[in-house]
Specification:
Layout (H helix, E strand, L loop, with lengths): L3 E5 L4 H17 L2 E8 L12 H28 L4 E7 L3 H11 L4 E5 L5 H7 L2 H8 L4 E4 L1
Parallel strand pairs: 1-2, 1-4, 2-3, 4-5
Helix pairs in contact: 1-2, 3-5
Length: 144
């Protein structure tokens, strides 16, 4: 049924739950798994030019975190014989990066983790998963 699955990860516990499910689905369907980490530019929007060293440090740390998140998923996938490809999206908000990447890799399923925030935390922080569900051209599986 699924041929190309896009897993969005941020390295969190919620993402690890989503990773286990995405790997299992890829194994069951013989699907290709793409593991996406989005480097959100938010902390440095508009000030990168005034503090380029701060931006470089932020990007270096973000790319290191992406590598660690990818490694966790790839290790999990390797154990069950699922081929997966790491992918990083930069200079884009998380939800938009996920939607763009889903289109670029021609995914037929997007898997995302949800932190399960409610109330004011959800209103203040927003929900990447909610935005992805609302805007995705393909089915989205939200894992909590």
């Amino acid at each position: 049924m699924f041929q190309r699955i896009l897993l969005a990860t941020d390295g969190s516990a919620a993402s690890e739950q989503a990773a286990r499910l995405a790997v299992d689905l890829a194994k069951a369907h013989g699907a290709k798994l793409t593991v996406l980490y989005v480097v959100d530019p938010y902390p440095y929007l508009g000030i990168g030019e005034s503090n380029p060293l701060g931006f470089q440090a932020y990007m270096s740390a973000a790319l290191q975190h992406a590598s660690e998140a990818h490694h966790k998923v790839m290790t999990l996938a390797e154990k069950v014989g699922v081929d997966c490809q790491p992918r990083v999206a930069e200079d884009v908000a998380a939800a938009a990066g996920i939607i763009q990447s889903a289109k670029q890799v021609d995914a037929d399923l997007v898997v995302v983790g949800s932190h399960g925030r409610t109330g004011m935390a959800r209103l203040m922080l927003g929900s990447v998963a909610t935005k992805v569900v609302a805007e995705s051209p393909v089915p989205v599986l939200v894992v909590r």
